[in-house]
Amino acid sequence: MSSVQLQDFAAGWVGGAASVIVGHPLDTIKTRLQAGQGYGNTLNCVLTVYRNESVAGFFKGMSFPLASIAVYSSVVFGVFSNTQRFLSQLRHGDPSHTPALADVALASMVAGFVSVGIGTPVDLVKIRLQMQTQPYIEANIKIKPTVPGFPVYRGPIHCFRTVLQKEGIAGIYRGMGAMLLRDVPGYCLYFIPYTFFCGWITPDGCISPNPSSVWLAGGVAGAISWGTATPMDVVKSRLQADGVYLNKYKGTFDCILQSYQNEGLKVFFRGITINAVRGFPMSSAMFLGYELSLTAMKRDQTETNP
């Protein structure tokens, strides 16, 4: 693999770490709204978490995604950029040729498909850690321990090991079907708007977009992508949070059916506001970290290899 190809993976790692630091508190609220019980709205959820768990409650489960989402984002951006180069080489004989819209869409779908292999276990552990202090509420079912706030898992490694021992590989990849349905189209609505807005905002004559253009285009793309991905994100969150105490859903379709029967169509749009709002700063940080680190690496390479 060439240095140019490796640079995309390295820059994706930086972007992923930046997005986790910026977006994890809002991600915790989003997960509690989608898979938890007793929250009337976003503000009520924020106040309840703060009142019961203080500021630390918003950062529950952050260590594992911070360590792993960088790898996840590295794969997403690396696969996306290298697939684009491959398609440009295939179509035009030049990997640096500006990709067509169809090539951006295909590269986005490939990145989304590949990312699920890494992203599903990461999301599962993160959501289990975020949800483990929530009391389980179900008619005529009493789960012990019943003390609210009693932790089920001691940390991300213990969570991963416990799920693997009790549920096997299938448990680690619980929610994978819903994540595929979320991420394959979701990344199309992530990279295509970003490419479009970057090209639109960047002044004529500039070789690469400036940081403000990257920040704005990345934020808009993130808000669009996460907003439209909310229905399948709800299903994925419910499936993955479900196993903290017991398995209520048999699979993706069963989760969709039960959720609809019990709470109606509106359940699939639960957390859409927080999803769209958190999508902006997370994606701004992601693309800004990616583009700035990529530019720095290319500059260093030029200076060392004049």
From TrEMBL:
This protein's record includes keyword Nucleotidyltransferase: no
Residues spanning the membrane: 61-80, 100-122
Record InterPro entries: MCP (IPR002067), MCP_dom_sf (IPR023395), MCP_transmembrane (IPR018108), Mitochondrial_Carrier (IPR050567)
Record-level GO cellular component terms: mitochondrial inner membrane
Annotated compartments: Mitochondrion inner membrane
Membrane topology, as annotated: Multi-pass membrane protein
PANTHER family: MITOCHONDRIAL BASIC AMINO ACIDS TRANSPORTER-RELATED, SOLUTE CARRIER FAMILY 25 MEMBER 48
Record-given protein name: Solute carrier family 25 member 48
